[in-house]
Design brief:
By secondary structure, the chain is mainly beta. It folds into three domains: 120 residues, Sandwich (Immunoglobulin-like); 187 residues, Sandwich (Immunoglobulin-like), CATH 2.60.40; 191 residues, Sandwich (Immunoglobulin-like). 7% of the residues lie in helices and 37% in strands. Lignin degradation and detoxification of lignin-derived products. One of its GO terms (biological process) is lignin catabolic process.
Amino acid sequence: MIKVGKTNSALQILSLLLVFLIHSQASTHYNWVKVKEATYTRLCSTKKILTVNGKFPGPVLQAHKGDTIYVNVHNKGSHNITIHWHGVKQPRNPWSDGPEYITQCPIQPGDQFKQTIIFSNEEGTIWWHAHNDWARATVHGAIFVYPKRGAGYPFPKPHEQVQIILGQWWRRDVREVLEEFIRTGGPPNVSDAHTINGQPGDLYPCSKSETFKLLVDQNKTYLLRIVNAAMNTIFFYSIANHNLTVVGVDGSYTKPVTTDYMTISPGQTVDAVLITNQQVGQYYMAARAYSSTLLIPFDNTTTTAIVEYKKIGNNFTPFSSTPPLPHLPYYNDTNAAFTFYDSLKSLANEHHPIDVPIKITNRLVFAVSINTFPCSNNSCAESNGTRLAASMNNISFVSPKTIDILEAYYYHIHGIYKKGFPDFPPLVFNFTGENLPLFLRVPKRGTKVRVFKYGSIVELVFQGTNLGAPIDHPIHLHGFSFYIVGWGFGNFDKDKDPLNYNLIDPPLRNTVAVPISGWAAIRFHANNPGVWFLHCHLEHHLTWGMNTVFIVKDGKNKKERLLPPPPRMPPC
């Protein structure tokens, strides 16, 4: 992590092109990042990967609640890039949100783009990552959002704060993995390792010496800022012989809940307090996949790091020759996964109030499905020679390739997208039933968006289906945080299930885990004008089309209107 003061001259700006300005006392920060290739060795083999400033994971970005940050992204790599600030609501400013061909065209090699990152009520841990192709496999990092200057935490101030980034590693170039499964129509090759802070850990070949090690003092508190940056893995995570107290998720505080494990989906973050109250020695932290169906191939390896207590005088005796491993739920323990999720509640106190929408103006149900498309001569890799796909409400989203949707919306350019994304599944059936007819598996392709009036109060139920391969779906909405007011297994019952909603202290998140063969209900105020991406954060599901776009129209007042575009957007 590099810290520098604000620059005051062109000479300084040029000399700091490679530097991430991490923190300043002012409310406006200036940052420069260089996206470039770097050589990394993992699992006994070496390859070039795309990085920010040569680091994997990338640098930590630090801010205080309500700050504004300017980031100049300079693409020194050989492929297009975009950067998304995941969990930053960007009020009225989708121009810097980042998803390729949704809110901007990509930053081409040699080009640069100055992004304005406007923080509002986020507080805790969020993150940033690439948002085109599969570049986010290595282009990602944490964002620490501290309380406003002069304010404190709603829990005792920790002795130290530590990023824990969970990820995936392929021996092959991830672009090759992407291109292959698009070409064949089958599922992507599973990763060769999971990682903690970029390292696979002791249980993998050629990895022991570089295993991430967290050095701690005994009887201190550490705030772990945990990010799931993995492409396609929901994780169980734990530390041997230690409990963790969750105090925040997705940039919002929660009521403290103490647990010996946690579930964290791609796109989600967790703030957890670790108290180092055990015997001096070494302990493994570990993460492995939660995969609710064993019918789908997944990476079943376990990544580890080491929590090592510092020596006290000359009395240090190693705990054992091998640190103890934590107990993690079994791979397909859906009950354990959602017991953890169900334990999370918003802090909802005087200093951190919540505003759960009650008077709903728009009720929506989106069916999320794995699908297939036919291939000519049955030439694709899926069963019966078909091609795997994914959809929301039977529409497999097709991104534009010549101009982004935000520009088309702002400048009234026709033919790029269509309005009228359906509020309800166009085909109603027993979504979680068995032996569903094959014709239901084939969706329609389209670039349809859902338009909201400013100030709409939305309830959206995501309904999982058993089409194709039933599995959990972490769904992320750009531009908003939302309250998860309910979830369950089976088909959503519009008359009975809302009676059990939590409208008192539901968790406030930006990514919701929709359970296998089940549903999840969220509520939010559509009060952020602009164009905002909605998608599954399992990267292959996004590639297959489990996406759509929300457009929130301008309100009447000046502060309810979309900001004008910056002087220069990346050209298509």
